[in-house]
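Tutorial, part two.
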Amino acid sequence: MRQLFLRKGNLFLQDVPIPLLEDNSILVKVYYSFISSGTELATIGESEKNLIKKITENSSKNVSKIFGAIKSDGPMGTLSLIKNKLSLTSALGYSCSGKVVAVGKNIDKFKIGDYVACAGANIANHAEYASVPVNLAVKVFNKNNLKLASLTTIGSIAMQGFRRANLSLGESVAVIGLGLIGQITAQLCKLAGCKVFGIDIDPSRLELAKKNGIDFVLDAKTGIEEQINFLTKHKGVDATIIAAAGRDKSIINNAMTYTRRKGRVVLVGNVDINFDRDPFYSKEIDFLISCAYGPGRYDSNYENKGIDYPYPYVRWTENRNMDLFVELIENKKINIGFLADQEFDISEAERAYFYLKKQRGLGALFTFGQNISREALNSIESYKKKDSYKNQNFDNLILPKYVSPRGKIQVGFIGVGGFAKVKLLPILNRNRFVNLHTLVDKNNSNMLTVAKTYGVKKIGNITDRVFNDEDISVVVIATPHKYHFEQSIDALKYRKAVFVEKPAVVNFEQLYLLEKLFEQNPKVLYTVDFNRSFAPFNLIIKNVVSNRANPLIINYRMNAGYVSKEHWVNDKENGGRIIGEACHIFDLFCFLTDAFPVSVSVQTINSHNDDASNIDNFIATVRMSDGSCCNFTYSSLGNCAMGKEHMEILFDGKSIWMKDYKVLKGFGVPVSFNRTDKYADKGHQYLLDEFILNVRISSHKLPIPLKRIIETSRLTLTVDKLVRNNGGFEVFDN
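Running the prediction step on this input gives:
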């Protein structure tokens, strides 16, 4: 499909994959997408600035970010981030309308053939198709209203600002800024029975407001305060809604002067919040921020999972605001035709934005053909045939033999999110035996950014693009954790070597199937990114402890830091932080002891504070088969300034101390053992390079033995289970 993108101030139309239909989404053939003059022209202007200019505009804050990135990701990771910034590709558009051509399996609100209005940045883009979560779409009953319905997102933003002002019948309201949102806001206020004062510096916008029945239109360059005083009997307006954009702090200060004592000022537009305290204090004015379309915005459970808020308790969600705005359009209660009277084909993007910039239009429409493409039909069929590993037969699953590559190893990379961009992709790109062949990700703009950064020619959003390509011999999987097992199995079935970012599995059912698969196919080229065991410090430690006479006592502490419960890693489907992070340390225990766990005892905290979750705060003591005792303390309660990871090892009259993979000290060992590094190295490069070497020579002596992957995963899942049961003890049958 064709989609409009922006890079370094330049617009370009690109053929990209049709977005994937999700279970809680609908696939929409876009007929119209609305071009927002204010937001999009500002985005283009910001994109035109070079990186140096952006850094110097807010130098102290941005320099601090750079040093923070160097501290956490090292120089190479930071350099990779900068390269991605230089190649940053953005999707434009966030409001569109069209026809439903497919529905996800959890959708009963829509059916194929429905007409809809859709919202959302990176969702309702200027593109031929959109995959839209159910709570970001509403029905349009009359096809003839689709043009106007393409403004529904903008209308909902205006409606939320109106609601934040808490206006009632007969009150007076000033609307500062009569651009796109200001014009709609003024009409909504008028529709609600308010006396409306429209304020702007542009005569043409004032004239538009006047034509739309706004009570008083005032030129901001004249003495507005005096005029409003006389028109409100020197009381001031009950509320002021700021729909303007600008860096001038006088915008908010002026709003104070127009607003009555104990009134309300609501900020909808993009204005710097830098104003004098005295007017607020002396008049006790409430200052409010209006967030986008309404309650639900930026809530992943609401927007992505389709979990609605109860109607009696949250009367006006973002979806209900959208629905009402469409109703106002269809009942002809609001006049917005003048905002959608200019149409451009998507291929005329440059002309459309030139019109908005030079002729100062408030908005325009991109139009798209209404025929459904063969690519869309294929995408819909792929969704219908989507299978799960649960339906696969593992009883006698003999995988096809891996075929050694000739020349450079061609890598297919699935999932190019933050970790992939900072760690895995830079490492692979530096390996002279590797060529990044194909990228797969569901976010087209992110995928184009990464492809540009690393010169990757092929992209896609379905894994088959990688699995079916015979040139690709290695698949790297860095998707959310819930996909790791299934995507790994599929890749192995297509004779690929697999490197999967941890964890290998997220539940015991997957572990059972993976163990069964390894038993039947002991020579698969497969590894998991349990990188701590390949950190240079830990390799040095392993060399020393290998010659010990007695078991080890290991104490490992991870000061993990707080992560919101709403973060994707804490989704039940993704397993949580123990499965996603603690697994590193359990693998390290196996590596350093050359043994496997025989029992584990878990204790958790018991707090009345929901933020102090037992899942993030526990102590696990693991008894190993060689008699070693390994203690792991994991907590989100500590202060990050202390550092994240600390390990102590006691054995044979010797002690080893390691802090954050930067400082290594030994006691009772030669002084040459001690190390101090400026940047932490947790073993990502060593492990990935070792895996690539194994692939090159078709060696089945993998960096991490398959049995260790299984035992590490079993221990991790067991600890997670015990933690969720508030602690306990379990013995393993090895």
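Residues 59-86 form the longest helix (28 residues). In part three we will examine how such features are distributed along the chain.
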